[in-house]
Write a structure and sequence with these properties.
Blueprint (H helix, E strand, L loop, with lengths): L1 H14 L17 H11 L6 H15 L6 H17 L2 H26 L4 H82 L3 H29 L17 H12 L4 E7 L1 H6 L10 H21 L3 E9 L3 E10 L12 H12 L3 E8 L6 E10 L14
Parallel strand pairs: 1-2
Antiparallel strand pairs: 2-3, 3-5, 4-5
Length: about 400
């Protein structure tokens, strides 16, 4: 459209005999149409080949100076110059305004020194309007477009990063919920599964009654835990006070519950807490343990006791806590071997959850069978080291239960 409009306008100007020069012209008549047609052709290349269009257009403009000249040719050349900066390569966009600026200054100074008249300044002004002006305009427009494109790109990147953060946050929250649900409910359901299997397999009224009592106790406790979790997850439940996270002070209750659940399986449970002694000897830092560390340690002991109820052979399950300047040490040892009688199935999710908890705190976690210290058989050991920084023990006393 630009090429057609320029060519038609040039033909109209030539038809009415309106030219730019009448004296000192080498080529008269229709010769003015040749540069005009070539310049119109360069307009077709202003986007696809702007550099080629500028070179050819410059030649056509120089050739136009030997004819009567046409305003249409000059105007089309300014558009070609503008397009060469706007659509050309970044290097061309930087060089063309500098080159046209140098040419404008050179033309002004050169013709002023040669002609030594004030009118010679008009030659420099015309050169600036035809070359430097369009090139500078193209550079400004290109800079604005590049800035707008960069802003759009940053906006897209920000949106993408926000979506990635949202997805990671949702995934992390789902993993946390899965760990909490598993740790809170699996203990009770495992006890229910073991005692219900025993009640069904043993034809003894007293054993069945005891098993039913344990089943009822664990089902009620598990239901309470489920209600607490649902209350925390329900949206808009602002009236309900969030339940406090369990701490290491509740390990006595946890071990007593495991002792009750494991009595029928021949399991005994002991708890050895050396944190207070370590603190008295100056081995532990001062202050309270961080809440995430206490929660992680509690959940590790809880899951280890649940696994012992599921898989351990008759014997003693030992829970040990220790404290150093940098870590809270948790160790749970249970008898390992072929277990007779009923046992609850396991999925391995508990070990995965414990590893995830320790990894979130940059701690150390190990779990697996090792040879017992007495040399007879093997034991399953769960060991965790949780960084405490400047934290201090939260419990008092040092004893074995």
């Amino acid at each position: 459209m630009i090429a057609a409009a320029g060519l038609c306008g040039g033909l109209v100007l030539w038809g009415v005999g309106l030219g730019m020069r009448t004296a000192q012209v080498l080529l008269l008549g229709a010769w003015v149409l040749l540069p005009m047609v070539v310049m119109a052709g360069t307009e077709l290349l202003r986007r696809t080949a702007p550099r080629t269009a500028l070179i050819v257009g410059t030649v056509a403009l120089i050739a136009d100076q030997f004819t009567t000249g046409s305003v249409a040719t000059v105007l089309m050349y300014t558009d070609v110059m503008y397009a060469a900066v706007l659509y050309g390569t970044p290097a061309s966009a930087r060089r063309i305004p500098r080159i046209t600026g140098f040419i404008t200054v050179a033309m002004t100074v050169g013709f002023s020194a040669w002609l030594q008249t004030v009118d010679s300044l008009l030659i420099g002004l015309a050169t600036g309007l035809v070359a430097f002006g369009p090139a500078t305009t193209g550079a400004l427009v290109r800079n604005h477009r590049d800035a707008a494109e960069a802003a759009r790109l940053r906006a897209r990147q920000t949106a993408l990063l926000a979506e990635i953060d949202r997805t990671q946050a949702v995934t992390a929250e789902r993993s946390r919920m899965a760990r909490e649900l598993h740790d809170m409910v699996a203990n009770h359901l495992s006890a229910i599964a073991i005692h219900s299997t025993a009640a069904l397999s043993l034809d003894d009224e007293r054993t069945s009654r005891d098993a039913l009592g344990v089943i009822r106790e664990n089902s009620v406790a598990g239901l309470a835990e489920m209600r607490r979790l649902i209350g925390l997850l329900r949206e808009g439940d602002t009236e309900r006070e969030p339940a406090a996270a369990p701490t290491l002070e509740a390990l006595d209750i946890l071990v007593d519950q495991a002792r009750t659940n494991g009595a029928s399986s021949g399991l005994g449970f002991t708890l050895t807490d050396r944190r207070a002694t370590a603190a008295a000897q100056g081995a532990g830092p001062g202050g309270a343990l961080p809440a995430p560390v206490e929660l992680a340690a509690y959940r590790i002991v809880q899951e280890s006791l649940t696994n012992a109820l599921k898989h351990a052979v008759p014997g003693t399950v030992a829970v040990e806590l220790g404290l150093t300047d940098r870590t809270l040490d948790v160790r749970v040892t249970s008898p390992f071997g072929d277990r007779p009688g009923p046992r609850a199935p396991g999925s391995g999710a508990g070990l995965v959850g414990m590893r995830e908890r320790i990894a979130l705190l940059d701690g150390v976690f190990e779990a697996g069978p090792v040879a017992s210290t007495g040399g007879a058989g093997r034991v399953w050991v769960v060991r965790a080291e949780l960084p405490v920084g400047a934290a201090a023990p939260a419990g008092e006393g040092d004893g074995t239960r």
